[in-house]
Amino acid sequence: MIIAHSVRVALVLGLLLMAGCAPTAAPPSEPETQPSVSPSSVPEDETEEFLASLADLGGTEWTGLDDTFNDRITFVFGVDGSLSYRTAEGDFSDPADTWSVDGEVLVFQATYGGSFGVGSHTASYDPATGVMIVDYTTSTNRSSSYTLSQVD
């Protein structure tokens, strides 16, 4: 009797399958989804933006290492054309220290005092790299060249 019953169940299931009425399997489970990230929470491309031109120099700071004298110096270019600087020895400014732009060339004066005297500087700037190349001569006949990069 058990065999006859099993045959009937198999026969009914076979007929249901042929008729397209087969019992459906459980739907596949949903794949795990990753949390979505909104565009506002993704940090913007962190490319460095350089000064567009020397005309925009006012209100910025630039630093570099003068290899000849082994001294790190940071120049502060005031929006009013004033100039100050700082080194490991401290902060310095003199009313005579100024800067100006003549075409594509930066010209500035810095009073160093002592054996350095007053420095007359000329600099060219490459907006693609953000680097300023400075040449200077002091009133005591010292001279050097170095590069400056903008301080963030």
- Within CATH, the superfamily of the domain at 54-150 carries the name Calycin beta-barrel core domain
CATH architecture of the domain at 54-150: Beta Barrel
Q: N- to C-terminal separation?
A: 91 Å
pLDDT averaged residue by residue: 78
Total of helices: 1
Main structural class:
mainly beta
What is the C-alpha radius of gyration, as a whole number of Å?
Answer: 38 Å
CATH topology of the domain at 54-150: Lipocalin
Q: Residue ranges: pLDDT <50 for 5 or more in a row?
A: 1-17, 35-47
What share of residues are in beta strands? 35-45%
* Percent helix: 10-25%
Strand order of the largest sheet: 1-2-3-4-5-6-7-8
Shape: globular
CATH C-level name of the domain at 54-150: Mainly Beta
How would you characterize the largest beta sheet? 8 strands, antiparallel, barrel
Instruction: State the total count of DSSP E strands.
Output: 8
- Written as H for each helix and E for each strand, in order along the chain, the element string is HEEEEEEEE
